[in-house]
Design goal:
The complex is a heterodimer. Chain A contains 21 helices and no strands. Chain A is mainly alpha-helical. In chain B, the strands form three sheets. Chain B has a two-stranded antiparallel sheet. The chains are: A mainly alpha, B mainly alpha.
Amino acid sequence: MSSSVSSPSAVSASLAKDRLGVWAVIMFAMTAATPLLVVGALVVSAWAGTGVVGYPLAFVLIGIVLAIFAAGYVAMARHVVNAGAFYSYIALGANKALGVGASFVAVLAYNLLQIGLYGIFGVVAQGFFQQRVGWDFQWYWYSLVAWAIVALMGALRVDINSKILGVLLLIELVLVVVFDVVDIGHPAGGSISVKAFEPHALFPSAALAGAAFAVAITSFVGFEAAPVFSEEARHARRTVPAATYLAIFVMGVVYAVTSWAITVAVGPDNVVGQAQQQGPDFIFNVAGQHLGHATTVLDVGHVLLLTSIFAGMVSYHNAVARYSFALGREGVLPHLLGRTRARTGAPLVSSIAQSTIALVVIIVFAVEKWDPLTRLFFWLGTTGGFGILVLLIGTSLSVLNFFRRDHRDESVWSRVLAPVLATATLGYIMWYVVDGFANLLGVGSHDPVRWIMPGLYLAVAVIGVLWALTLKGAKPDVYDGIGLGATAGTAVAAMTFSSATQMPTQQGGAGDQPYTTYTDR
Amino acid sequence: MHTWEDVPFSLADDFYLIGLDGRTNRPRLHAKAMNLGVGAALLAELVLANYIRINNGRIEVAYRHYAPEAREHADMLSRIIAEPQHHLPVWISYFAQTATDVVQQRLVARRFMHVESRGMLRTKQSYVPVDPMAVEWRSLRIARVISRRDIRTWEDLTIIGLIVATGLAEAVMWDSQTDERDNLVAILHYLNDEPSLHALITQVETLIAAAVLAQRK
């Protein structure tokens, strides 16, 4: 900004008071960590389904790859409007048509992740209420209750207080650390085995390793959320990267150690069999038998697991609603999706749309009597994670391309080396995952489902790109606004058809920076 | 008994009252949208008094020989003159922080509202309209302007732009959506003649949408 003054600005100072502090952003990023859900439910299901033992190593490897990815990701976040969304990066760094393709991939992926959680919620709640209260309801009744609450919260824009989420996470972490100490303190056979960290535990075959990588990627979903505060966090240049790296680090360590501790306690060779027998109770039973209060541990664990799943549902629901709200605002999807409710500011239509899709899926699973754990939770969840993997690769390539034209004072590591390395390793991992999709889903290698699930992304991506190209011809204004989120067309601008006052765009206006919110940059 | 119909209203006061449900004295808008709308309305008052104009995403001071009569306007203008480096969204967000207070105090001074102490210790203050029907009348009046396409002032045009931008329009309008939408399109078309107001109003809408995406209320 050419006209900036060196004296402190009263205006900026006043607005800064309203900004999010360092801890608020870090807390927000950290609540993406869900140790009980990941280790207690996802990894246990994965042990049972894939037979691979080496998830601890998979977490370490994926954690490292994501940290490398994050270097370019957080660097570009400083230069993107709507920085909370992968497709904004791709629209800006690659091109708008690919951005729309990516946005459709993202909407599908986050939907699958969200809806998958209704499966595990139903199963855990069913078990819990059956044991404690003697209720004998099917899993889907519990899922439907959770669905109704999530739908209502989304429509009314009621968020779970971040402090409550923080406290729940803290309790969860304490519980998990206690489990880890107890598990490692009672090793099977009397000696601590590190077999789960050895390469052959993860790579019994390429296809099986691919399945394990998909599970590990799914576990880390949520690490990407901090840049949503790029424009309204204090010292965002440092806060957002710090929060992102810290989230990856904590998730990696907690997931790896906790899953490893279980293999220590029951013996690496028994993990798969025990996981198949015990399901989501496995992690609690293992620690509970040594703690001496098995039922209490199980109860506390179950309650925390349920709250953790519920928080995940709300968070993914909001992610989908925000994505479709942005796409509605941009005119890529019907404008109706970009509408908010005046009294609450909720993206009402987007929220209802996501809830409707979720409801239909729950009902179909209930009517068809499909398994809520292996099919609804594991299939949808891991396929959702695979979609995130696709987006990570697209984002990395876009980061590379974005800084190719203009370095914007970012380091060579952030704008070239890290994105190249991330693209290569994530691409390699994706190849593994596609190769191992049948193992991931636990179906025969010729079962069409192994191609249908990952193929869904190709289908929606192609539809998205074609739709964008149609828009480019029919509505060039809409095409130009792709990826701009809130700064894309407004209802007032659409009604006035004005060319006199252009909306501020990426290069537009007097400044050289995008400005969606009150940030002076 | 005099009718409120004839009382001239400041733009921002009027917008604020339209955003209020007269019967319950509760806002029809969430706080962020209300503050941004009222903040922009105060800036629009300065635009319409020819003190400022908006050009290329920034506020330009158009007249600085005499300070505006109203104290709140004079405060705003001196602030804008002191720090010319900020973009429009920064200014709207800045004035939004205090705009609702400014308007409430203006309405108290004009004896349209009064302050009531609430809560156990009577420490909470709330602004209550003297005549709830008069508050309702502001919404009814603007709805009538829309449905008759009876635009006579820039103030009314700005208010209609702001109620569309903030999402208030649906709460205010009467008829079926398609008719009213046609009316709104016909009315808002006039905004093309006043780029400063157009820029203000579209920026408010963008800021509200950005708040949705940032997931902060």
